Sequence to fold (494 residues):
Amino acid sequence: MAQIKELKNIRKDINEVHTDLLIVGSVKTKKFSNPLKSSLGKTLSNAIKVEKFTGKLGKSVKIYGDDKIKRIAVFGLGETKKYDSHTARDLGAKIIKYANSLETKMLTIDTSSMGLSSDDDLGAFAEGLVIGSYEFLDYKSDKKEVAKSSNTIVKAEFIGANSSVLQKAFVLAEGVAIARDVSNHPANIANPTYLANTVKDIAKADNMKYKVFDGSEFEKMGMGAFYGVARGATTPAKMIIVEYNGGKKAEKPFALVGKGLTFDSGGISLKPGANMDEMKFDMCGSAVVIGVLKAVAKLQPKINIIFAIGSTENMPDGDAQRPGDIVTAYNGKTIEILNTDAEGRLVLADVLAYVTDKYKPVGMLDFATLTGAVLIALGNRASGLMGNDTKLIKDVKKSSETTGEKVWELPLWDEYSKEIKGKYADLKNMGEGRLAGTIAAGIFLKEFVGETPWCHLDIAGTAWGPKEPSYQPKVGATGVAVRLVYNLLENRIK
Ligand code: BES
Ligand code: MG
Ligand code: ZN
Fold:
């Protein structure tokens, strides 16, 4: 949960503010322009001199104030030339962490000194502030630890900012927070039914229709690939769908599809024990869908969207799928299972083919913690991006640049298709040995989207783990791609 529960714009003069902590910004190249006219202003100017504060990015100077303003901190913004929305987002997170270390309840930002030259920068700063305040303490029983967190910032005020920009940033940050929450819950709590209920709850909003299909229906629906993966699990599998109608009735929807493996043991091709606990995060693709759903429910953008999640556990069992099994996917293609641990692509194959067939989307994105290989290729600083449509790939890259959630394109050239040709069936569920594992998975998915303009984001490296920029949490899921996808949807509204 994000600790900040409210972002507010106030129209007061800085000298009338009542707060626990006032934050003022200072640029490196300019002389500090003191916004305080009271006696505090003088003390602040003195402190800046004594501390030899130059406005270096991330450096700060603090003084204690009076009854009205208890503390004032000047934060360095570095050089204006290098200051952009990414720096602003990062700084927002640094400021909230600083405020938390002081255990303050209320924070006030002197907006005009923060170097936020556009609404985008202001939005990014506010996002960083709220996302950076995220903590996951649901399972901590240490009262002190929990109380400390709930006693810190609950409200942040901005002096003279654009209120609608703040509200949108807050909603997007809530989307990121719910994506992190569902991902951080362990697999014994966040199972497919839990995901379905979470979605159902959000989908009570206007213009949303919720549907769910149980694993027991998959076989007769023709989803043999998803069914094969779900066989080994005793917790029921679910395909979860929300139809959102924010656009014109006749307009075809854009589709978002997420891999929701609430636990991936590997199945009969069992994974090694080390770090297997992290496979509770194998539903982070579905968390992207849930995070965006949450933001769409509140912001009601004028576009039609299909949200779809394929959710199950991948478990070994007497009835589990075996290596060598052959299954038939929703679009009629047959697949040889060479490794039961390459299960995400099987689940997605059926959900992608189903959504393509039922909704004829104008574009489709999928999100999945699909391959360990993407970590080898890109580490945890960028998600792998693949697709069949140059324009959509370009749009994803553009949104990625806006939101700072890095992506890097890998090719899906036709030549790679050879590597997933089956010996006995049409396809096999993995490529040639260890080579180009992420691309092999991508080119496999491409078989199930028909002519739909489509992109796949492999978030196995970015969905949990990265500690930078500073809005990332100390532990657990990042909620990566929620903001990127919302930005992309928004850019599609003409
Ligand atoms: N969920 C994993 C991918 C994964 C691995 C994500 C490590 C994050 C960290 C996926 O289902 C998987 O097991 N993929 C296999 C595919 C292989 C068997 C072809 C992999 O990457 O090893
Ligand atoms: Mg697997
Ligand atoms: Zn998996």
Summary: The domain at 7-161 is CATH 3.40.220.10 (Leucine Aminopeptidase, subunit E; domain 1).
